[in-house]
Amino acid sequence: MSDAPELPKEEEEEREEELTPEPEDQSDDSSGEEAAGNTEMDFLRNLFSSTLGLGSADKVLDELTLDGVAQYIKSGKCKNILCMVGAGISTSAGIPDFRSPETGLYANMQKYNLPYPEAIFQIDYFKKHPEPFFALAKELYPGQFKPTICHYFMKLLKDKGHLRRCYTQNIDTLERVAGLEGDDLIEAHGTFFTSHCVSFCCRQEYNLDWMRDKIFSEDIPRCDKCSSLVKPDIVFFGESLPVRFFTSMKMDFPRCDLLIIMGTSLQVQPFAGLVGRVSKGCPRLLINMEKAGQADPLFGLLGFGGGMDFDSEKAYRDVAHISTCDDGCLALAELLGWKVELEELVKQEHARIDGQEKEKEKVGESKGAAAEVSAAAPVAPEPKKEE
Ligand SMILES: [Zn+2]
User: Fold this and answer.
1) Is there a domain that residue 30 lies in?
2) Locations of Acidic residues compositional bias (predicted)?
C-alpha cells in the first residue's frame, strides 16, 4: 500500500500552485497571501481563456462524447483516473441515501422525538441521545451489501492500472466490497466499515460485524474497554472531514488525467468543489441522471470557476452521459472492449457474495440466531431453509 509512487514534496507543491489555485479552499492553506495571489492569477487566467478562447488549446478529447473518452483512455495517455462518486452509484444496490431529503427520511422522524430532524445526524446531539440514530440505522440497514456494475467498473479501472483513487461520498462500504482497498479510496463522508469509541483517551476501533450485531440487538454500542459510546466512522454534522480527504486531494487532483464523476449532483461542499481542482486540460466525464456541477454564470465571472461546461460553444473537455451509473459504465466498458470482462466480474462476485450470505445464514441457524440474521437481510433472495 505504501508503494504508490509519490512525487517529492517540493515538486508536488510547485505543481499544485501551477495547476490548482482554489479560491474556495479555507481548510488547508496556511498561506493566505499566497492563496490570494493565486486567486487573482486564476481569475485573470479564466478571464483570458474565456474571452480569448485560450482554453481550446488544452483540448485532449477528439470529441466530447463517451466514445471520445474511451478513445482517450485507450490512447495510453490516461494513466491517472480519479473517480468522484455519490449516492447515485448505490441506488441500484438498494442502499437508501442516508442524508438526502428525497428518501422522505426527515418527514418520518416524529417517532424519535427529536428537537428538529437534522439533530439525528448532529454530533453533539448524538453524544447525549444516541438512541434515535441507532434506531434509524437499524431501520435503514441495507439488506445486503452487493456492489453494482458501476462499483465493479471502478475495480476494473484499478485492475488495469488506470485508477489513481476513488473519492466517495457514500458510507455504505460497497467500494470496499467490490475490491477497492483503503489506499484506493477516500471516504469523504466517512464509512460504516469501522467504528470508534468516542472517548479521546480510548478511541478503540470496532468492525462492521460488531456494530451490526449491536444495531440489530438494539443495544446502544458501548466500548468494551471504557464503556463510552461507540460511533460508526461516518461524518456527522459538526464533525470535520477525514484528514486524508484534504491531504490526498492536494496530491491527486493536479496530476489527474481524467475525472469520472458518477451518481452525484455535486451539491455538497467541499466535495463538489473537487471538480475545479484538476488542471484546465483534464477531461471530465459526468455519468448521472441529470447534468450537474455547471458553473453559475455569476460565480464564473467572479473567478470562482471550475464549474462544468457541457454545452456552451466554449465547451472543450466536459462530457455528460445522462443515464444510470450502471448503464453508463456498461456503455463505456463496451467502447473500451471491456464489457464481457465487466459482466463476468459482476457475475462472479455476486455469486461469491451470495455464497457468503448462505454461509452466514447456516452459522446463524446453528447458533440459534437465525432471527437476527434474517432481520439483517430483509431483502435476501434466499428462501428460508426447511427444518
Ligand atoms: Zn473506549
Assistant:
1) no
2) 9-32
